[in-house]
Amino acid sequence: MSDTASSPDDGPARGGRLLLAGWGVFAAVNAVLMWYFPGGETIPFHFIWISIALVFGMTPMSRPSMNITLGLVTAVTAVILVHHAVIGEIGVEETTEVPLMALVFLVMVWHVNRRQQAMAELRRLAATERRVAENQRLFVRSASHELRTPVTVARGYVELIRSAHTDPQTAEDTGIVLEELGKLDALTARLVTLAALEHPTVLAEVDLDAVLDKTVRRWSPVAERDWRAVGDVGVVLADGDRVETMLDCLVENAVTFTVPGDRIELGAHRADGMVVLTVADTGEGIPPHDLPHVFERFRSGSTAGERAGSGLGLAIAQAVVAARGGQLAVTSTLGRGTTFTARIPEVPHAPVPFTADRSAARG
Asked: Mind listing the pLDDT tens digit for each residue in 146-169?
């Protein structure tokens, strides 16, 4: 590469020098006009001071350069006004405009410097947040892939040991190991899901009411609850897999904090151009001090105890909704239950005709 090649910063620097040179010519012309038109120097005087303020706002200036430029402008305009006052063309009081304009300029410089410092701090904080977010994404992607293989291998060996030994103690011990490996496997699956949410969503026609019914049928054998599904949305454009993932995360949370006999109800309806999905339960509810933190990653409720999971379920549900430009909110009353409400903008699409197959599927 040639030694004369210019750096990316040469363009802005050259532009700044040209602007300063142009301003110098403009200021000199106005100074000449001030000198040769005593009594009519008001307009060129203010042109000089306004132009230096504009140049300072548009072109970075070092403190020494700014001080020298301000000193020259102050000295030149002061000499001209004092000369005009001495020869009687203007009143002496008009010469006070020079220190006043200099003071106004210095106040402006102070304000601009404070703003620049504040913007620099905001940029630093934003860069720090981006680095933290990127490190989290790298961790999620790496951990999810690195954990799956050893967990699968360990599960296989434990099952071999369990099948080769029939004594009760071995069966109990291997059962505990398999249970813990199952939890680790579930955590790995959640990490994989969280990493997949970074990729663009693929929209297709999805019958949300049928998705609610399917979710209830899948979860009914898992937990003895009063299961209900109430939907009147029909077919919408959505990512069916992600919708099911979101519902599973919310339903799993509802199951965790309810007991047999409690009601868990899934709902879907339209409101103000939004598709509204709800998962409500009549469980123990969430303490008020936990509500602001329910969607934080790796955080479980203070009342979860041994029921605490990975702390990723609600974070995944929120990420799914946010990826579609929606919002996930929670309301809860201790002893009366919790309701999660996802409001997602509806994507317009061509009407889908009602068919007998769809009606049968819901029935």
From this structure: 666 677 778 788 888 888 887 888
